């Protein structure tokens, strides 16, 4: 009996792969300082923060919802942690409470959306404002600093480099991997492991495709949806911790606009607003592509206010590339078929 | 044989419709119990109550003599009740094996990680038993409708099943696939599984059924042993009246050609040529996925097509645009009236004037009073059951919603009507109202194309019938040739045996 095999398709690869490829080559050629160990280290560090946010965003998108509050949660949990450090709370407690705040806020999002049946876009739009305002009020809109003390030396330690390889004397010739990148790597590995090796993928795809099907299969849809929002809140709080460690202080507005970037990275990675499908690998590539663009622009001395124009353009480029590859592929395959099989399959009308 | 299941005095009401009224039914061990009745008779609702998807308003459910107090999908699954739904319930982006085990995945020790190897082996074993040559790792989106149906059955059998419900399982299968399915059902009977089998195809139930229960308008009419009943008695019980009564359309001489479709081709259908004449009701039949609705959408200008032409009342449509098609006198009443035909949050008046608003108010200044007058005249003419023209359409019954859609197109002075599944999900009384309206339109000189998956409806209403199969116009039947057998033969004529749609290897 003939076994039908899984067809391989170019268009099944995440479009962020092509975007990353295009962006990376273009940046390397156009900006000489781009392809240096120093800059690449910096690129990876910067994209770590976005990566955590966009991982949460991707999972939410796969369920057919959206979480616009991740930037707000980042600001709020950051202010919570920084204020506690300032009040001499031991770092480990400050971090734990900060992460818990993120989980609780995410859970609240999930409860509003499932139990009150509110639309996710508007709900998280509202809670974004709430979280950001809490950050502003608590911090009185000022950057929160704290004095280095033994009780918070953990923050200092985590800010250090884990690996440092010197290719030369100047900063750009030094490859560094900090503990922050290591933390991110561990977190995303765990999430991907859970996604691919447990029922997580089936659950989010089923809920995103058709909640009724999921319910009929005996899946506790509300439980999973709330869990996903809680995870998104936790990941936002983790991203906030990364920011706090890196800058050794916290600006209350630090998360503003990050939800937009998280959506861009996730959508570039093949996640859609309709849900029911998506890819976490794609999201990683999407986040890297996004920060490659930002890095190249800043190295080239282009004003930061242009960044959003370019990011918008990158998103459109990504979507267009995917469409084009799909069309192109069909034609190629159609032509190959008609040549090989000696008959016309109608793809080349 | 011992009783496996008993449903007693089940009642269920939806807004505007009594779906089930005091229905009692039981199921024996190793039995195939056929449920039969017209669309809207309550078969699917009854089965959804069994599976826990709906809660009944009254009545009781007991399994092996023990009453099930609060049924829900999880509980029904634990009780061993499995549904194979009419509409496919698979997640396209997941693999066959992930779909088969959705909700009851096999896990490694510790209950966190999936045991993918044993899921693969088990899925392969189930598929092998059913004689289905599909790789368990392939994503469902690459499978044909028939293959997906097979996966649905495999899914139902993947865990210990006591009661299986087949909801029109053969509606998209080829005859050889149906034979395979019946072989599976026969072997399941030997393992003491009890099965409910819903079908519209009468010949099937004599092949596979042990007992039959007829439902009509939400009421149980009779339960009989299959060997004690003839096909004619059954038809009489299903319809409850002479068949010709519901279909008022009397054949008449067709007039001039109003719609001429010539060589229409897109990715979904190929080289479709057909015409519609004044005074005619023409049926368009075929299997689900044959490309009928897609073709209709292209004719109306909603979707694009590659080549071919559409001519309305002698005028060729140059631009593919629904607005222009509407102005030329074409109207399209979509399959999914709630999604595409009506603006549910708007009221009856607003829905009726929505497409004809330019003709009604050439200066683009809207006069609500005039709208109300116009809407009220259609409400009266079409006998739409609504207290006022201000009632929101989502509170109307299915039949009355459909009439609002028809009124909308009457206002635009349409001459050609494409009805896509015009009576799906509406009760028998409302159906005959719609049929009467269609007949009246035809008498007044309109041309009607009726897309329908309901064969009795196609046979009862059509002057002639086009049949599409897999995107191709398989043929046309007229007069005495309009029979179930002839139409089905054409409908299956271009269905390929392949299970995977777009293999590119």
List the secondary-structure elements of chain A in sequence, H or E.
Answer: HHHHHHEEHHHHHHH
- The parts of chain B where pLDDT drops under 50 for at least 5 residues are none
- State the helicity of chain A in percent bands: 55-70%
- Might you state the CATH topology name of chain A? ABC transporter involved in vitamin B12 uptake, BtuC
Structural class of chain A: mainly alpha
Number of strands of chain B: 20
Could you describe the largest sheet of chain B, including whether it forms a barrel?
6 strands, mixed
- The whole-angstrom Rg of chain A is 22 Å
What's the overall geometry of chain A? Answer: globular
The outline of chain B comes out as globular
Total domain units of chain B? 3
Which oligomeric form is depicted?
Answer: heterodimer
Summarize the structure.
The complex is a heterodimer of chains A (349) and B (505). Chain A contains 13 helices and 2 strands.
Structure description:
The complex is a heterodimer of chains A (about 350) and B (about 500). By secondary structure, chain A is mainly alpha-helical. Chain A has one domain: Orthogonal Bundle (ABC transporter involved in vitamin B12 uptake, BtuC). Chain A is built from 13 helices and two strands, in the order H-H-H-H-H-H-E-E-H-H-H-H-H-H-H. In chain A, strands 1-2 form a two-stranded antiparallel ribbon. The longest helix of chain A has about 35 residues. The two termini of chain A are about 35 Å apart. The N terminus and C terminus of chain A are likely disordered. By secondary structure, chain B is of the alpha/beta class. Chain B has three domains: about 240 residues, Rossmann fold; about 170 residues, P-loop containing nucleotide triphosphate hydrolases (Rossmann fold); about 80 residues, no CATH class. Chain B has a six-stranded mixed sheet, with helices on both faces. Chain B has a six-stranded mixed sheet with strand order 16-17-18-13-19-20, with helices on both faces. In chain B, a hairpin with a 2-residue loop joins strand 9 and strand 10. In chain B, helix 16 runs parallel beside helix 17. The radius of gyration of chain B is 24 Å and the shape is globular. The relative contact order of chain B is 0.11. The model of chain B has no long low-confidence stretch (mean pLDDT about 85). Classes of the chains: A mainly alpha (about 350), B alpha/beta (about 500). Chains A and B meet through helix 8 and helix 9 of A and helix 2 of B.
């Amino acid at each position: 009996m003939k076994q039908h095999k899984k067809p391989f398709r170019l268009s099944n690869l995440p479009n962020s792969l092509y975007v990353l490829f295009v962006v990376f080559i273009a940046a390397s050629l156009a900006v000489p300082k781009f392809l240096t160990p120093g800059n690449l280290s910096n690129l990876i560090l910067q994209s770590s923060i976005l990566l955590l946010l966009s991982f949460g965003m991707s999972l939410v998108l796969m369920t057919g919802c959206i979480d616009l509050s991740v930037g707000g949660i980042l600001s709020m949990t950051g202010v919570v942690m920084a204020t506690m450090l300032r009040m001499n709370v031991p770092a480990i407690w400050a971090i734990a409470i900060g992460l818990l705040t993120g989980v609780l806020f995410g859970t609240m999002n999930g409860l509003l959306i499932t139990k009150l049946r509110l639309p996710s876009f508007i709900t998280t739009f509202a809670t974004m404002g709430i979280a950001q305002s809490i950050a502003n009020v608590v911090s009185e809109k000022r950057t929160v600093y704290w004095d280095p003390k033994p009780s918070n030396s953990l923050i200092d330690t985590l800010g250090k480099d884990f690996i440092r390889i010197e290719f030369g004397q100047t900063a750009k010739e030094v490859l560094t991997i900090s503990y922050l990148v290591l933390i991110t790597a561990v977190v995303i590995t765990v999430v991907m492991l859970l996604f691919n090796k447990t029922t997580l993928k089936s659950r989010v795809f089923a809920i995103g495709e058709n909640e009724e099907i999921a319910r009929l299969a005996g899946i506790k849809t509300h439980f999973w949806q709330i869990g996903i929002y809680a995870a998104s809140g936790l990941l936002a709080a983790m991203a906030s911790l990364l920011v706090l460690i890196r800058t050794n202080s916290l600006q209350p507005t630090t998360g503003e606009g990050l939800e937009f970037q998280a959506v861009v990275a996730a959508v570039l990675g093949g996640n859609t607003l309709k849900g029911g499908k998506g890819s976490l690998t794609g999201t990683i590539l999407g986040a890297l592509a996004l920060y490659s663009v930002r890095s190249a622009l800043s190295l080239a001395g282009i004003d930061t206010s242009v960044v959003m124009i370019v990011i918008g353009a990158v998103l459109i480029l990504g979507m267009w590339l995917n469409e084009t590859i799909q069309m192109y592929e069909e034609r190629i395959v159609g032509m190959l078929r008609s040549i090989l099989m000696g008959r016309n399959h109608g793809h080349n009308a | 044989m011992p009783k496996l299941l008993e449903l007693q005095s089940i009642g269920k009401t939806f807004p505007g419709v009594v779906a089930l009224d005091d229905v009692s039914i039981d199921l024996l061990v190793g039995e195939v119990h056929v449920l039969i009745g017209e669309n809207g008779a309550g078969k699917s609702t009854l089965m959804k109550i069994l599976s826990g998807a709906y809660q009944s308003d009254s009545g009781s459910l007991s399994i092996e003599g023990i009453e099930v107090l609060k049924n829900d999908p999880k509980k029904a699954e634990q009780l061993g009740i499995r549904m194979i739904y009419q509409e496919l319930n698979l997640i396209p982006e997941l693999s066959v094996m992930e779909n088969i085990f959705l909700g009851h995945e096999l896990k490694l020790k510790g209950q966190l990680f999936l045991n993918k190897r044993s899921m693969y082996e088990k899925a392969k074993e189930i598929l092998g038993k059913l004689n289905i040559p599909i790789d368990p790792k392939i994503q469902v989106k690459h499978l044909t409708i028939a293959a997906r149906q097979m996966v649905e059955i495999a899914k139902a059998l993947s865990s210990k099943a006591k009661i299986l419900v087949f909801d029109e399982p053969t509606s998209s299968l080829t005859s050889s696939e149906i034979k395979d399915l019946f072989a599976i059902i026969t072997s399941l009977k030997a393992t003491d599984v009890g099965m409910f089998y819903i079908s519209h195809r009468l010949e099937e139930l004599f092949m596979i059924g042990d007992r039959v229960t007829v439902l009509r308008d939400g009421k149980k009419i009779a339960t009989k042993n299959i060997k004690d009943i003839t096909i004619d008695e059954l038809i009489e019980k299903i319809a409850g009246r002479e068949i010709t009564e519901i279909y008022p359309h009397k054949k008449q001489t067709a007039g001039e050609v109003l719609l001429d479709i010539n060589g229409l081709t897109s990715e979904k259908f190929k080289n479709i040529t057909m015409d519609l004449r004044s005074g005619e009701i023409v049926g368009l039949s075929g299997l689900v996925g044959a490309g009928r609705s897609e073709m209709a959408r292209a004719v109306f200008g909603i979707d694009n097509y590659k080549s071919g032409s559409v001519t309305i009342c002698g005028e060729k449509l140059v631009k593919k645009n629904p607005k222009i098609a509407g102005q030329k006198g074409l109207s399209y009443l979509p399959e999914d009236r709630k999604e595409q035909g009506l603006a549910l949050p708007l009221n009856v008046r607003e829905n009726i004037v929505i497409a004809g608003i330019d003709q009604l108010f050439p200066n683009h200044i809207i006069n609500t009073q005039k709208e109300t007058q116009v809407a009220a005249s259609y409400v009266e003419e079409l006998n739409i059951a609504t207290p006022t023209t201000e009632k929101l359409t989502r509170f109307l019954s299915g039949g009355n919603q459909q009439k609002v859609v028809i009124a909308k197109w009457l206002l635009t002075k349409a001459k050609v009507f494409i009805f896509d599944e015009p009576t799906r999900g509406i009760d028998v009384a409302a159906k005959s109202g719609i049929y009467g309206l269609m007949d009246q339109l035809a008498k007044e000189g309109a041309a009607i194309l009726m897309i329908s998956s309901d064969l009795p409806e196609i046979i009862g209403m059509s002057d002639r019938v086009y049949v599409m199969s897999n995107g191709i116009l398989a043929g046309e039947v007229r007069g005495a040739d309009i029979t179930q057998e002839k139409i089905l033969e054409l409908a299956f004529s271009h269905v390929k045996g392949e299970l995977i749609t777009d293999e590119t290897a």
